[in-house]
């Protein structure tokens, strides 16, 4: 019976064949232990000299790291294994013998591993992170489909910017200027006016020369937009979504979290509702904590966000930021013209902002005024203004950065490990 490592639990005490690679091995005089991987998981294969042909045992002792093979054996339940099963090997058939595999079971520097990212992905920890990423993607679709949202695909090449052009990659679109998208939001708003509630899920690009552990040049964003939804209701949807992701990872990725050594109590605490504080209150807390280098109107940096998150055992919403810090499309607060109806969701443990969102301006004249105030070309945003011209309604939206969320829920140090092939300030390869 041919199967995969993930499915061996269906075949306890039966003989199966698995296509696999050798992740590692060790042996004594009479037993060889093969650490096998097949993409679906990892399992140990035990080759007992007295129970197999001499040639098979010789193969087991000499086979090299990352060689590919077909392994036949009997599935055994094993409580000592984190996976719960092991394979008593009866036969080995080498497909391709690997030689001089560069990533050996020893410490390698980060730059070396990043240079060999195409191979580093095969390691057990990187495999675990990618599986958690996959679960977050699946759970994202599950959540929004269950909530009645429609998936909308926004363009990657755009003729205008939602947040100004200073951090955009510019290119030529035949005989006119174009940009790599930094957000699908404006197009999602158009979708929301047609379909009610939509979400986009795609790559975004920021030409930001940052080297922090939180930033990538190319990353994936989940961006819902919701008609007839105002600020407070949007916050409720955001916290329900993040809670849904965390609990799904806890339920479906136990083995991966164990491999990564993740403190699962931190994930158990991620359940709605989340605390909410205004920017003004956050500033007071920071001043009380000795951050005397910040004043009203300044944006919060990583140290500030980390200090604020330490107050809470859950993610915290910081709401009502100064208007001067935020993009042109955010709805002003009804009682103050210097702050807007927005929120950043700050993750604990130093992971920083994972969601940014707001209620959007729905008044035509006010939006036109803000476009002019931000020195944006009116003709480029005329289609966006049309959304306020023909049946405008209150609406809200937000964006969640996938890689930062993967890093947070996985408990890994740097976002570069949360995507298959990260694009960093000085890294375009592999």
TrEMBL record:
This is Asparagine--tRNA ligase. It comes from Shouchella xiaoxiensis. Belongs to the class-II aminoacyl-tRNA synthetase family. It comes from the Bacteria. Transmembrane segments: none annotated. NCBIfam families: asnS, PRK03932.1, PRK05159.1. It catalyses: tRNA(Asn) + L-asparagine + ATP = L-asparaginyl-tRNA(Asn) + AMP + diphosphate + H(+). Its EC number is 6.1.1.22. The gene is asnS.
């Amino acid at each position: 019976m041919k199967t995969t490592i993930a499915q061996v639990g269906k075949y306890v005490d039966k003989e199966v064949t698995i296509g696999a690679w050798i992740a590692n091995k060790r042996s004594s005089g009479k037993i060889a232990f093969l650490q096998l991987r097949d993409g679906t998981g990892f399992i140990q294969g035990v080759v007992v000299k007295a129970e197999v042909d001499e040639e098979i045992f010789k193969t087991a002792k000499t086979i090299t790291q990352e060689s590919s093979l077909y392994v036949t054996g009997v599935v055994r339940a094993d409580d000592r294994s984190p996976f719960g099963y092991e394979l008593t090997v009866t036969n080995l058939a080498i497909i391709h013998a690997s030689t001089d595999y560069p990533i050996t079971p020893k410490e390698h520097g980060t730059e070396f591993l990043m240079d060999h990212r195409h191979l580093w992905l095969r390691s057990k920890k990187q495999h675990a992170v990618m599986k958690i990423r996959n679960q977050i993607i699946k759970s994202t679709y599950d959540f929004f489909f269950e909530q009645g949202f429609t998936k909308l695909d926004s363009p990657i090449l755009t003729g205008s910017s939602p947040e100004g052009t200073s951090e955009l990659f510019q290119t030529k679109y035949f005989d006119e200027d174009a940009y790599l998208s930094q957000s699908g939001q404006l197009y999602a708003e158009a979708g929301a006016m047609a379909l009610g509630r939509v979400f986009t899920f795609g790559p975004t690009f920021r030409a930001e020369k940052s080297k922090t552990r939180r930033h990538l040049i190319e990353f994936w964003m989940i961006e819902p937009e919701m008609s007839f939804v105002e600020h407070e209701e949007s916050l409720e949807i955001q916290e329900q979504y993040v809670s849904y992701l965390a609990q799904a990872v806890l339920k479906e990725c136990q083995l991966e979290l164990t491999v990564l050594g993740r403190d699962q109590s931190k994930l158990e605490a991620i359940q709605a509702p989340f605390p909410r504080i205004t920017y003004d209150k956050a500033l007071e807390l920071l001043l009380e904590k000795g951050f005397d280098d910040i004043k009203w109107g300044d944006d919060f940096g990583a140290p500030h966000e980390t200090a604020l998150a330490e107050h809470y055992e859950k993610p915290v919403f910081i709401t009502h930021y100064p208007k001067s810090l935020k993009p042109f499309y955010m709805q002003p607060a009804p009682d103050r013209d210097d702050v807007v109806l927005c929120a950043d969701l700050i993750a604990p443990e130093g992971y920083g902002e994972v969601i940014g969102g707001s209620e959007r301006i729905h008044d035509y004249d006010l939006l036109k005024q803000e476009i002019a105030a931000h020195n944006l070309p009116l003709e480029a945003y005329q289609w966006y203004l049309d959304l306020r011209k023909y049946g405008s309604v209150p609406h809200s939206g937000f964006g969640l950065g996938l890689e930062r969320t993967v890093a947070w829920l996985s408990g890994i140090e740097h976002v570069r490990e949360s995507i298959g092939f990260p694009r960093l300030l000085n890294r375009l390869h592999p």
